[in-house]
Amino acid sequence: MKALNVAATGMMAQETNVNVIANNIANMRTTGYKRQRADFQDLFYQNLRRQGSQTSDAGTVVPAGVQVGSGVRVVATPRIMSQGDIEQTDKETDLAIRGEGFFIVDMPDGRTGYTRDGSFELDATGTIVTEDGYTISPGIVVPTNATGLTISQVGVVQATIGNDTSPTVLGQLQLARFINKAGLEAIGDNLYLQTDASGEAQVANPGDEGYATLLQNHLETANVVPVTELSTLISAQRAYEMNSRVIKAADEMLSSTSNMG
């Protein structure tokens, strides 16, 4: 019975949906995390009576026809790149992005990563790095005798060196933008990679037209809304249960047919 296979596709689709929701909930406290959603698409149809086909020599046609669907599939799990809340941390190397853009990360294998996670540290050489030790491009070094580190809204990094009375500019942070942010590939560790779908990275200074500004001593929280995720989870659970009931009903119908006579 076709209903068995159709309902099975529905259960598998909702299983993926629940996995996506679970990952969102698990990352509620992940800095800069962007939630995902599951998008669905119906499968091909079997035409038992094609609409528009001729039914008589007089030219009458079938107005609606008979089509039987094959079920559903998950076609995409796009990320929702909306702004997360800004949380104060009072740590001088913490940076929040307010608006469009990603920090640029030089990865050890030579690839370039992109992140919204601004929880940075200084390594043994004074270089600004991620919590995994990856250098934040363009590789700004804070001298060991520097005090009063400040990072402006437009990404200018300054500190007072030694006994100097005025701060010294140490470098300029930059941000990258993409035409299709949802096309970035997430690789874990709060990092994304550029893909053909995302388009080329467009790099500029914070505060330039169309680019975000930075906020020192703050971090961007995940854009996960717990109430929304729980509501979606309940809907997914109900859909899964209804598909399982279809399988049970189809099994009972087959059993009744086999017991006839």
UniProtKB/TrEMBL annotation:
Major localisation: other
Residues of the Flagellar basal body rod protein N-terminal domain: 4-34
Q: Which GO terms describe its biological process?
A: bacterial-type flagellum-dependent swarming motility
Which superkingdom is the protein from? Bacteria
A Pfam family it matches: LlgE_F_G_D1
| Record localization | Bacterial flagellum basal body
Q: Which GO terms describe its cellular component?
A: bacterial-type flagellum basal body, distal rod
User: What residue stretches are annotated with the Flagellar basal-body/hook protein C-terminal domain?
Assistant: 216-260
Q: Which residues form a coiled coil?
A: none
Which InterPro entries does the record match to this protein? Flag_bb_rod_N, Flagellar_basal_body_rod_CS, Flagellar_FlgE/F/G, Flg_bb/hook_C_dom, FlgE/F/G-like, FlgG_G_neg, LlgE_F_G-like_D1
Query: Could you tell me the keywords of this UniProt record?
Result: Bacterial flagellum
Flagellar hook protein FlgE/F/G-like D1 domain: residues covered: 96-159
User: What is annotated about its quaternary structure and interactions?
Assistant: The basal body constitutes a major portion of the flagellar organelle and consists of four rings (L,P,S, and M) mounted on a central rod. The rod consists of about 26 subunits of FlgG in the distal portion, and FlgB, FlgC and FlgF are thought to build up the proximal portion of the rod with about 6 subunits each.
Concerning its family, UniProt says: Belongs to the flagella basal body rod proteins family.
Name this polypeptide is given: Flagellar basal-body rod protein FlgG
- Gene source species: Hartmannibacter diazotrophicus
